[in-house]
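#struct-help
A.M.: can someone run this one for me? Single chain, 244 residues.
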Amino acid sequence: MAKRDPHCPALRGDQVQRWLQAGILKADQLGDTPILVVREAVRVRLTKGHRTTLGQGIFLVPRWVEIPWRRWTAGLHDLSAEELEARAIIVRPGGRPYRLIFQQVEDLDHLCRQQRHVLKQGEDNPYFERRIKPYIIARRQAADSLRRIRKRRLEAIRNGWIAPVGKKLHYPELMTPEAVAEAVARLDEAIAALDEIVERPLVIRRKRAQRSLRAAQRWIQERDFARTLRHLRAAWKNLMWPTP
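D.P.: on it. Structure tokens below:
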């Protein structure tokens, strides 16, 4: 799990909605699910005296949690339907109030495990099977699909842009000014392609790879091919899918 403020173990749904509407929080949906992926790191205010940082690439996973009855009867139950909606609160059949929260999940592997755990917890629960299970299955499938997509993308960048440049460096006599310019352009394309990857645990490795690729561009223009290869190998290593 991502780090949490000790005073606010989860983000309130109305906070997240307000940050999104104001453009403070930039996030993308995970497929067709309500799970959000933070696109850019941002510092947000949780309470009057507490702030926290939502790091790039973490996942915000929505949950409905029951509001303690004492808190509900302390004034929330007097609010109108519009006021409850503004606070991301719903009242389910039977009069039980629930508030929308967002859990901060650190990376794709944690997200996949979390959704599988939720499915296992709901076994033999008729309400879960009928009303909730289809949504959790969709979330799990979206997370698994994103993982497969990112694995393929990293492989394509390694084999489509980095490997061809590395192979040419073994033949210095072929590295004419035109060939050097072409290699620099290929690495530019690789750096740009990596910008689309923002999810953890890949985002840190992606940034390291981009730094290595920029260093490789500098050294290949200096015709120091040995140093260029070292930086290309470093980029290649960072673009391997991390093992748990």
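A.M.: thanks! The chain has eight helices and eight strands.
D.P.: also worth noting: Residues 24 and 209 are 28 Å apart (CA to CA).
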